[in-house]
Specification:
7-stranded mixed β-sheet; 7 strands; globular
């Protein structure tokens, strides 16, 4: 289970809003995290706490296909992103780096900045703790839970190769 406070964003948050293009010559997580949402919410990294959750509207992560955006979010301590919809390439990049993201229009509409939320990835259940309201997203299939649990696709593949080499 994931539990964190909500940081709220609107529709069409593109990858340049998540991590400005001027930082694309950097690939390490901590440096990217320091500039996460810099141009749209300069105080984000100051108030962000490890485990917090980003909630947004439609088409979150639109724009370029670079992995810098989900890496910046994960390195900043974001434990999960809930949105009405995601840009497809962002969705895949997020899963590939082990950042869980859930499409749930009802939760994305209702949750407000500062709300404390519990997210149950295996079932897709999202709980607004203060209001006691529950929302249902599609749960992740087992193979995607393995990728997320391992910390990303590369980490999962490394773990699988290591396990096979010990047979």
């Amino acid at each position: 289970m994931i539990r964190g406070s909500v940081h709220r964003f609107g529709d069409n948050v593109d990858t340049d809003a998540i991590i400005p293009a001027r930082y694309l010559n950097v690939s390490d997580g901590p440096t990217l995290a320091a500039h996460c949402f810099e141009d749209v919410d300069a105080g984000f990294v100051k108030v962000m706490r490890p485990g917090d959750i980003v909630v947004a509207g439609s088409n979150f992560g639109c724009g370029s296909s670079r992995e810098h955006a989900p890496i910046a979010l994960k390195a900043a301590g974001v434990s999960c992103v809930i949105a009405k919809t995601f840009a497809r390439i962002f969705y895949r990049n997020a899963i590939n780096i082990g950042l869980p993201i859930l499409e749930c229009p009802a939760a994305a509409e209702a949750l407000q900045a500062g709300d404390v939320v519990e997210v149950h990835l295996e079932s897709g259940r999202i709980v607004d703790v203060a209001r006691g309201k529950e929302y249902q997203a599609a749960p992740f299939p087992p193979y995607m839970m393995e990728i997320i649990g391992a910390g990303g696709l590369i980490a999962k593949l490394r773990r699988d190769v290591q396990a096979r080499s010990q047979l």
